[in-house]
């Protein structure tokens, strides 16, 4: 039950909002970047959940050690992002570029 004085959006307003989102999806490169982002997130979540299990079950490591080692994957992503952006900045010499 909504609180007193709070109005919920109408169905028409919700549908209009969905139409605007759908319109934004068809802007140049948005669909492509959305697909790339979804695949990247899929790989991230697969590694996040699968790597500790693999290290503990298949490699027979202690589960605590397997969890600790899987953190290096996250650290590698952070450092890799910083290094990749630095390399792109130097290659592009300050110009805007899409990676």
Automatic annotation (TrEMBL):
Matches recorded under InterPro entries: MFS_trans_sf
Keyword Membrane in annotation: yes
Keywords of the record: Membrane, Transmembrane, Transmembrane helix
Record's bilayer topology term: Multi-pass membrane protein
GO cellular component terms given for this protein: endoplasmic reticulum membrane
Primary location: membrane
Places the protein is found: Membrane
PANTHER family registered for this protein in UniProt: MAJOR FACILITATOR SUPERFAMILY TRANSPORTER 16, ISOFORM B (PTHR43184), SUGAR PHOSPHATE EXCHANGER 3 (PTHR43184:SF12)
Name listed for the protein in its UniProt record: Major facilitator superfamily (MFS) profile domain-containing protein
Species name: Perkinsus marinus (strain ATCC 50983 / TXsc)
């Amino acid at each position: 039950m909504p609180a007193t004085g709070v109005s919920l959006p109408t169905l028409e307003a919700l549908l209009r909002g969905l139409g605007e989102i759908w319109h934004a999806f068809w802007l140049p490169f948005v669909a492509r970047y959305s697909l790339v982002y979804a695949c990247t997130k899929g790989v991230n979540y697969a590694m996040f959940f699968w790597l500790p299990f693999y290290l503990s079950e298949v490699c027979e490591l202690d589960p605590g050690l397997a969890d600790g080692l899987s953190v290096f994957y996250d650290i590698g992503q952070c450092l890799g992002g910083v290094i990749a952006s630095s390399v792109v900045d130097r290659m592009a010499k300050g110009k805007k570029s899409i990676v």
